[in-house]
Specification:
With 611 residues, the chain is α+β, with helices and mostly antiparallel strands. It is built from 15 helices and 21 strands. The protein has helices spanning 3-22, 24-31, 40-45, 61-64, 75-97, 120-129, 152-177, 202-210, 276-287, 358-370, 408-424, 443-495, 501-530, 535-567, 571-601; strands at 58-59, 66-73, 103-107, 112-116, 136-142, 145-150, 183-187, 191-197, 215-219, 252-259, 265-273, 296-307, 310-321, 326-327, 331-344, 347-356, 376-380, 383-386, 397-401, 431-439, 498-499.
């Protein structure tokens, strides 16, 4: 035997052992009942010498069931948020240039910026010449204010990027969530389609994926008496026995004593209600008419008071400055933790600790140094989570303390979810669920059964045909075919590919491609034997002369599979991935494996070749 033969045999044995080793986690995964495959029972079942438990074959949405969601991105709200930020930028820029102006606010329903000034020409030239003219133009001047608007091309580009960012953010959240092989892609009309194979809790999926996670920091306007007239219009919350819940129907007013930066104290008016919708209605009807929306907004937070059942929650207001001083865009990391400084029953209160980027730390330090001894509200998705006093400068590290009144375990789970969405990034705009579909648990196993039966029947017929028509050579081809299937499944498990119903079709197709290569080899060997060649020469020339034919047929199919993989999605991509892996494995088994076996069986001069 030639020296190269021993190397080929060693390679075949190594590949076979590697394939079996790589499929050990998949064996234990599918051996367990479906409800136990994602639990610790599976991780304990996988031996320590095997690959990591996560390296198992995954089933797609069509095979194991799961959740299908379609989410629409509110790009109009994203545009309004961008205009509001630009208004703040313009105000800061004009102030730094010493240009006289009174205010820079949004107008036209939040789609334009109006700069009120006595020097409209100077404002216009200063802004447009400084680079703002690349994105904005001025439609004109009216009522002592210069109006600026974004160009249509800029808005279209921003809206497209908002959907793209939303898709990326949702993908990051799903990846951190640990869902295997999700299918997430953009569709028309600002829609994003999400498929989560194996996930069975649609409510949790909607909560985590639909949460905007817009983190904002606003300064409380405690010196402002704008809400004080409501004390004469609304029912006071405190009765003969003090502040008690449930509160009066429709909401009420109460007060809290707040320390002001100058060292004095003030009784600040706040509105409270039993539910958030009830409080929002009260604000809309009574409080909103008293405020200038360009200067102040009302934040809503949750608090609780002791009761017979433990602690009962209620909702309250915070009077805040309208300007968002800082956002969560600068957050570099976030994690759930327990506050060791204050006790909640037998446990510390859950909180979310976050770390800001270097630029975010600089901005936070500037903000806190300018507002010492004021309250700073931390708002997450329009809810005031906490509003502590700024006792000193804060830079890169901060924390969000969750409201009380709930089970500590539930609060800690919420802290974990908040940390996850903060790390994954905020959605650029709110999203709405436009379609929700759950693939039932009975559909997946049925499809798996049918697909498996089809694959096994096809494989069995091919094996019988090769054995009947080519006899001994057909048996060799059957051994290579079995190794081909083993190698395909092992590679899929190693790289974490999801097996879908089209993927099973691709798997069966690769078996056909592998057989086709062996048919070409065997027919060529027959021709060489008919020409009077010896067995060894016929065997060598049979493989050598069809080598490039096999390579050509596989490469052309491989090109088509790669195109489908890059431009297809969902089932099409699953088919292409399986087909690509199968083609590579087919070339190895049909050229290397079968030749090593055939050369071994014909190593003697008296050997016979059954072909």
């Amino acid at each position: 035997m030639e020296r190269s033969w021993y190397w080929r045999v060693a390679l075949v044995v190594a590949v076979t052992l590697f394939s079996l080793w790589q499929l050990v986690p998949s064996w234990f995964y599918f051996k367990l009942p479906p409800e136990e495959r994602t639990t610790e029972a599976y991780e304990r079942a996988v031996p320590g010498w095997a690959p990591h438990s996560a390296k198992h074959l995954n089933l797609g949405l069509d095979l194991q069931g799961g959740i299908h969601l379609s989410m629409g991105v509110d790009v109009e709200r994203a545009v309004k948020a961008k205009v509001a930020r630009r208004a703040d930028e313009i105000a800061e820029f004009l102030k730094s240039k010493g240009v006289p102006f009174e205010s820079a606010t949004t107008t036209a329903g939040g789609t334009r910026v109006a700069v009120k000034t006595d020097a409209p020409d100077q404002v216009k030239s200063t802004l447009l010449d400084a680079g703002y003219g690349d994105e904005m133009y001025s439609p004109g001047t009216a009522d002592g204010a210069v109006t600026f608007a974004f160009k249509d091309t800029v808005l279209r580009d921003f809206q497209g990027k908002a959907v793209e960012q939303a898709e990326k953010t949702i993908r990051n959240r799903v990846d951190k969530w640990g869902v295997s092989e999700p299918d997430i892609k953009r569709k028309a009309n600002n829609q994003i389609q999400i498929q989560l194979p194996g996930f069975k809790d649609p409510e949790k999926a909607k909560e985590l994926l639909g949460r905007t996670a817009q983190l904002e920091f606003k300064i409380a306007d405690d010196e402002n008496p704008a809400l004080d007239p409501l004390r004469q219009q609304l029912t006071p919350c405190a009765g003969p026995d003090g502040f008690q819940v449930p509160l009066p129907q429709g909401g009420c007013w109460t007060s809290e004593t707040i320390e002001l930066p100058n060292g004095s104290a003030r009784s600040v008016t706040m509105l409270t209600a039993n539910t958030r919708p009830e409080l929002e209605k009260l604000i809309q009807e009574k409080a909103a008419p008293l405020l200038d929306p360009q200067k102040n907004v009302i934040g809503i937070g949750e608090d609780s008071v002791p009761s017979a059942a433990g602690r009962t929650p209620y909702y309250r207001t915070y009077l805040l400055r309208a300007k968002t001083e800082l956002t969560g865009d600068y957050i570099a990391d976030a994690r759930a933790a327990i506050d060791q400084s204050q006790q909640f029953g037998q446990q510390g209160r859950p909180l979310v600790q976050f770390t800001m980027s270097a630029e975010g730390g600089r901005l936070m330090q500037k903000l806190t140094s300018e507002n010492l001894r004021r309250r700073m509200a931390t708002m997450l998705d329009d809810k005031v989570e906490t509003a502590p006093y700024i006792q000193g400068e804060i830079s890169t590290n901060g924390q969000i303390t969750l409201g009380s009144g709930r089970n500590p375990q539930e609060m800690f789970e919420e802290a974990n979810e908040i940390a996850l969405v903060l790390k994954a990034g905020a959605l650029p705009a709110p999203v709405t669920i436009s379609e929700e579909r759950t693939v039932g648990a009975t559909l997946g196993p049925e499809l798996v059964k049918r697909g498996t039966v089809a694959a096994l029947v096809g494989l069995g017929l091919v094996l019988l045909f090769m054995l009947f028509y080519y006899r001994g050579s057909g048996l060799v081809a059957d051994v290579a075919l079995a190794l081909n299937g083993l190698l395909v499944l092992a590679i899929m498990a190693m790289i974490g590919t999801t097996l879908t119903l089209p993927g099973i079709a691709g798997f069966v197709l690769t078996l056909g491609m592998a057989v086709d290569a062996n048919v070409l080899i065997n027919e060529r060997i027959r021709e060489e034997l008919r020409a009077g060649k010896t067995i060894k020469v016929a065997l060598q020339q049979g493989y050598d002369k069809v080598f490039w034919t096999i390579v050509d047929s596989h490469v052309t199919t491989l090109v088509a599979a790669l195109v489908l993989m890059n431009y297809g999605s969902g089932p099409v991509r699953g088919f292409a991935v399986t087909l690509t892996i199968g083609l590579i494995a087919s070339m190895f088994t049909s050229i290397v494996v079968t030749r090593a076996i055939m050369e071994y069986t014909t190593r003697h001069e008296t050997a016979r070749l059954s072909v």
